Prior knowledge:
Growth Hormone, Chain: A, 0% strand
Amino acid sequence: MSSDTDVGRDEQLVRSGVRRAGRRLIPLLIVLYFVNYLDRVNIGFAGPNGMNDELGLSATMFGVAAGVFFIGYLLLEVPSNLLLHRFGARRWIARILVTWGIVATIMAFTPNATVLIVLRFLLGVAEAGFFPGIILYLTYWFPAGQRARMTAWFMTAVPISTALGAVVSSLIIEHGHGLWGLSGWRVMFLVEGIPAILLAVVVWFALTDRPAAARWMPADERDALERAVAAEGAQVSEEGPKSVLGALKSPRVLALSWVYFGIVYGLYALGFFLPTIVKNFAVQYGTRFTTVQQGLITAIPYAVGLVAMILWTRRAANPTIRVAVPALVGGLSIPVALYMANPWLAVVAVTVCGGGVLAALPGFWSLPTAYLTGAAAAAGIGLINSLGNLSGFVAPYVTGALSDATGSNRTGLWVVGVVMVSAAVVTWALRARART
């Protein structure tokens, strides 16, 4: 039997091991996700800044091009996560980086709408497994008590890539126009696609699959961290599904897929259409902004969301409240933006929505990882992410189609609000059911 002294020493070693692993791994993961998310959504900056006109895209066709990414993503998400679980994160994530970097770079040379849609589909195929693979990877390294915080730090790449990416993408489009004989939006795709290929080399040499293989960590910290993660995994496996098939059929996993769908619906609707909404301020309010000014305005909701993400994860200890409350606030605030009297009040309402979406995201992943482990976790996380990310196809398509049909963004953003509120309701219902 372990003495209190041994238990206390183990806890201290786990804490120091978590700090050491966090300093080593999380900055690299943030950089990877920054590049990943930027390559996924930079079409939102290309569209209203030359691409739609040059390729002859309507709002609906732009929505198809933006969203078809997630069809390829859906098809290979679960198999990719299972392969990562089998072969290790270092090898599999490096492979993902190389393939998505090549496709993202080729998008600079797309000649027409058909090729653009095909390349966006292939980009989804190439990126499949990256995000859920990282979520799974974090379960190998961090016990549940610290995992939500580490997930929040990892996911700061979303607002950073969108806020900073909005400015960087706008600058590249504006000042890169004509470089190598390419339009500004083509230069943007080229410049932003190359880093993924370079980072594959970094991942191959710098990423460590599990604590047991971490030679850069003292042996006692490494062993304590392995024991803590293994003990949690054994406890979770007693409560959750035991197999890949069990995870894929689990009603709780399917319900969590809808919750994630609702939260991410808001994220992608903003990511793909916020630049267009800001550009349309000229029509709605008679206010004109330069391309760079539009990029700066687009960055505001994500800069505020970055702060909300970190602070909310620290303050909200209850996992259900951590997800349901910001999803509810975000869903209720987005339609309000449509009825503001001036552009700055509209930006405030959109910023509240963005803060709600981003605050809900890192907390969400504590829900399935408290229920799944091992191969069941690989399958379940992959399924939740793939079904949830169908919103990446549905949100831009529905928003674009409703914009074409009505001549306004209002109906599409009302749909965003309803879907996000439903995610909050389902989250709360899962909590109530768990108590019975």
